[in-house]
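Q: What residues go here?
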């Protein structure tokens, strides 16, 4: 049985809950978990002020599963920097889910707000609904966003998702973002990430892209003129397997380099 948190009081402003991770819950007694600190604005509270806590406890980090019930749309930073274990959210969740995450898995059976998996370093996040803006991106002022791990969003991601993604062949790190559809600037400033969009993109996809790959199975409403059509191909090789189809391959973004290595693939419809 997982450790279960059920929200019993909706916060009147955003609730900061970076303490909610398997790393912080593992090997703790029930009363210790209830008394862990969370913040409502600048007010220090404890988990039991907003959540009922019950069920299994006392496991190692990798064995710890946290199940969270209720409307968490004003609850932020769940899963921050988690390294192992699992979090299951049965509803909608607020901003900064899994930011700087290093391992483990988070599943959201609803929608997630902005900055899902920001600057993520490993692990897996699954959003069964939509995700907000800047999914898998870098925070403002940073030039390195998601460097490893996987984010799967069944619905739509917001603007500037996958911004500043960066891979490393040396360390065998290949960040993956897969979504159902996307808003503007998907993969902006991409530096090696793999982005797969099952549906349509609003436009300006891959702006300032230096390297990496973006695969679009739908349509791009506003195609950037700084991408050059190269050839038609039947399959695309990605770090998570081969994607087959009648694709048109483009190279870009020529607005930032005379010899860019970014690859944009669009399925012929």
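A:
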């Amino acid at each position: 049985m997982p450790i279960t948190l059920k929200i019993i009081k909706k916060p009147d402003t955003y609730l900061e809950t970076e303490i909610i991770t398997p790393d912080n819950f593992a090997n703790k007694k029930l009363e210790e978990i209830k008394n862990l600190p969370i913040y409502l604005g600048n007010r220090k509270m404890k988990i039991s002020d907003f959540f009922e806590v019950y069920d299994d406890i006392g496991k190692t980090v990798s064995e710890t599963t946290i199940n969270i019930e209720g409307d968490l749309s004003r609850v932020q930073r769940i899963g921050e920097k988690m390294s192992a274990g699992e979090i299951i959210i049965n509803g909608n969740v607020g901003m900064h889910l899994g930011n700087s995450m290093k391992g483990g898995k988070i599943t959201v059976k609803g929608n997630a707000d902005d900055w899902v998996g920001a600057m993520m370093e490993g692990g897996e996040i699954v959003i069964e609904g939509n995700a907000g803006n800047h999914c898998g991106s870098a925070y403002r002022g940073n030039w390195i966003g998601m460097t490893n791990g996987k984010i799967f969003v069944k619905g739509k991601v917001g603007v500037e998702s996958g911004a500043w993604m960066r891979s490393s062949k040396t360390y065998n790190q290949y960040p993956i973002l897969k979504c159902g559809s996307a808003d503007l600037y998907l993969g902006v400033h991409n530096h090696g990430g793999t982005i797969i969009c099952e549906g349509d993109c609003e436009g300006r996809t891959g702006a300032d892209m230096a390297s990496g790959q973006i695969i679009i199975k739908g349509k791009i409403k506003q195609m950037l003129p700084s991408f050059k059509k190269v050839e038609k191909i039947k399959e695309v090789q990605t770090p998570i397997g081969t994607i087959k189809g009648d694709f048109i391959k483009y190279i870009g973004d020529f607005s930032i380099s005379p010899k860019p290595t970014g690859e944009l693939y669009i399925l012929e419809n």
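A: Context that may help when evaluating the design: The first strand starts at residue 3 and ends at 7. The chain has a mean pLDDT of 96.
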